[in-house]
Each structure stands twice: as C-alpha cells, then as structure tokens.
Amino acid sequence: MSLPTIDHRGPEFAYLGRKVLADMGRIFQTVHPVMIYPASGTGAWEAALVNTMSPGDHVLMYETGHFAFLWTRLAKALGLNAEVIAMPGTEANGTPTSWRHGVQADLIEARLREDTAHIIRAVCVVHNETSTGVTSDIAAVRRAIDAAKHPALLLVDTISGLAGADYQHDAWGVDVSISGSQKGLMLPPGLSFNALSPKAIEASKQSTLPKAFWGWQEIIEMNKGGYWPTTPATNLLYALSEACDMLLGEGLPAVFARHKRWSEAAKTAVNAWGLPIQCADVNAFSPILTGVVVPDEIDADQVRRVIYERFNCSLGTGLGKIKGRMFRIGHLGDCNDLTLIAAIAGCEMGLRVSGVNLQSSGVGAAMDFMQKNPIPALSI
Ligand code: PLP
Predict the structure, then answer these.
(1) How many CB atoms lie under 10 A from the CB of residue 149?
(2) pLDDT tens per residue across span 84-96
(3) Alpha-carbon distance 85 to 64, whole Å?
(4) 40 Cβ inside 6 Å of ligand 1
(5) Mean pLDDT, to the nearest integer, of 66-85?
(6) Are 62 and 86 in contact (CB under 8 A)?
(7) Model pTM?
(8) Ligand 1 site, residue 130, Cβ cutoff 6 A
(9) CB 30 within 8 A of CB 195
C-alpha cells in the first residue's frame, strides 16, 4: 500500500486494474463483471439500487439486524417503496426474534407468490449480518424466488461475509452482490464492490433512478482495458491485489474452514461462560463474528468500556435495537489463534470485573478446542 502511486492512465496501471478485477471475480466466484468503487460499503449498497431500480419501484427487504435496517432506510431515501418482512416475535429482553435468526426463505416465497402482478422488483437480503453474527442461506433465497416463479432480482449484501464465509455469486443465482474492503479482504476501509449478473446488467439499461458516479455502463467499458472513468484508489488496489494473492494462494475452502474453526472456538468459550449467543440457530452461526448477550441487569457497553480501558481490547458494540444488550467478538481476516484467545481472555476478565457470574473459563474451553482441532497442515 505504501508503494509510490503510479499514473492511473499509464500502461503499468492497466496490468494492476485487470489483475484485481480478475482476482475479485474469483473471490466472488463469478465470471461476470465486478465493479470496484473508491467508497465504503454504503456506496455499494446505493450503487446496487440506483443501477437496477426506477423511482417508486417496490423492493422486498428482510430485516435480520441493524445493517438490513440501514439498507432499507437507504432504499427509502432513494425514493423506493421498501417493504420489510421478518420473522415475527420479540425475545424476553426486547430483541426482535428476527435479529437472532437468518433469513427465512419460506417467508420470502410466500410474499412473492402473493405478488401475482410482479410489482416486487428486487429481493434484498444481508448474507452475514455484522450486527448480530448470523449468516443467511442465500441459495435458499434463490430457490424461494424460483419456486414462486417470480422475476425479482436478488440483491445480496456480503460486506462482512465475503472472503470469510463461503459465497458463490454465480452458483447461487445472485444478481448483485455487494461487498467492502475492510472485513474479510483484510484492507483498510475505502473500497467497495458490486458483482453483477447478466440480468442485473440488462436491468441497468432500463433503470431510471439518477446515477452518475455509480453508473455501471461506463465503468464496465473502461474496465475492459484495466482502467476506470474516475480516479481509482490506486494504493488500496495494490493492497487488494496482495490480499487476493494471500486468499487465493491459501485457497478459498481453507479460508472458509479457518474462519469456521475460529467461530467454533468463540462459541465454545461463550458456552463455557454460560452466556447466550445472539445467533439462536446453530446452522446460522457466523464464521466472521460472535455476538455475546449479557445478563439483563448488565450494560454491554459498560463491559466493553472495562475491557477497552483495562485490557486494551476493542470489541464491537451492540447496534440499534440491541444496543447495550450484547457485544461482538470479531474473528475475521488478519486474525490468528492467539489473537482470538487474547480477545476471549480480555472478555472473560472484563465480564468478571463487571460483576457477571461466569459458569466456567471460556479461555480454557477455547484453548482446549483449538488444541484438539488443529488447522489442517499448509500444503506448501
Ligand atoms: N452492511 C454490512 C453487513 C456491514 O457490516 C456494513 C458495515 O460494517 C455496512 C453494510 C455498511 O458499510 P460501510 O460502513 O462500509 O459504509
């Protein structure tokens, strides 16, 4: 990233441009175009909608957590008619039940079957809900849309899922996949992505929402030569190239297994403490992060503050409707067994200092798990 910035219209740049575009196709598991924007993830959310939708279009959004909620708010701000569905119910501590589970594809199928006039133009779901640590089955959502014989596009936010959890843009029939640089790709914030399908590209030719900077057509044309219409974030692209070499060199199945193993270790620790995990569905545990629910009388942000101030470990806060009820342990990207054990140790000490009664040592349980389940030997 600290290499000198080269001329983004010169010949050397075209090599870098073509390389990162091809690499990102392999990361998204697609043969179709990938857009790379110098923007945070929110920009790529907006790009996905303004390129495919027209003013007043009806979109079906599924609320799995705070990021799904924010995407809905953005869709409404763009003038779309955003309908929200979710699993019904509220937990005893006030958490919406849908914030503890993945997308229920049957609810989407039922809603699409009702829509015989096909007014719903897109189904929007979050693959890995960063606010809760719950992963959704995207292939099941595609099957639901197909079972209902509905023409809606499938738009998926995999901002925190990509390069940590398995993600197959083409095989799962996703029309627009949205991601960002700062999670599984191990980079600073500042790049975001749209992976497209041929159907999404066709939709972009009909869509009339205003778009200039985000417009796909000009970018697709310029990308063929390895360039962008506007100034690219050259140094972040150097870093992206390196990250892709690391991920593809390790092999995506090994990357996914590594994250799943960390998630198992974190889950083992939280179970040993005797605290609930935000994700209530064993099949939906995120390989990327684990949400820890604190007892009702405890403020999770106060626990986070203790862990930060006393042990110099910064944890994710509970967001939106679950603020103060939980905190998040990240185990993604540039992480290893010992950094995760250290984070669990910081949590264990901080929880005890904050007066939480723990059943047993999560650190011991996680260490035991890691010892008994070694990372498969690297094939060098
Ligand atoms: N979607 C998800 C799942 C996220 O985790 C985030 C950010 O953490 C966003 C959207 C928003 O992206 P950004 O904050 O990069 O604009």
Answers:
(1) 9
(2) 999 999 999 999 9
(3) 9
(4) yes
(5) 98
(6) yes
(7) 0.98
(8) yes
(9) yes
How far, in Å, from the CA of 216 to the mean position of ligand 1?
21
At residue 67, the 3 state secondary structure works out as helix
Residue 343 predicted with pLDDT over 50: yes
Residue 2 falls in which region: left (phi positive, over 0), alpha (psi -120 to 50) or beta: alpha
d(CA 241, CA 19): 7
Answer whether 223 contacts ligand 1 (Cβ < 6 A): no
Give the DSSP letter of residue 96: B
185 CA distance to ligand 1 centroid (A)?
14
3-class SS at 85? strand
From 130, 167, 288, give the residue whose CB has the most ligand 1 atoms within 8 Å, as the site to mutate.
Answer: 130
Ligand 1 midpoint to CA 75 (Å): 15
The C-alpha angle 65, 71, 77, rounded to 5 degrees, equals 140
For the segment 23-55, what is each residue's pLDDT rounded down to a tens digit?
Answer: 999 999 999 999 999 999 999 999 999 999 999
Cα–Cα distance measured from residue 262 to residue 257, given in angstroms and rounded to the nearest whole number:
9
Tell whether ligand 1 has an atom less than 6 A from the beta carbon of residue 52: no
Work out the angle at residue 117's Cα, subtended by the Cα atoms of residues 177 and 71, and round it to the nearest 5 degrees.
Answer: 30
Distance, CA 67 to ligand 1 centroid (Å)? 7
Per-residue model confidence (pLDDT) at position 334? 87
Helix and strand numbers (H, E) in the chain are: 12, 12
Closest CA to 155 of 68, 81, 216, 31: 68
Quote the distance between the C-alpha of residue 202 and its chain's center.
25
pLDDT score for 377: 65
CA proximity to 154, closest of 81, 29, 61: 61
How much is the CA Rg of the chain, to the nearest whole Å? 21
Burial level of 339, CB count in 10 A (0-12/13-18/19+)?
middle
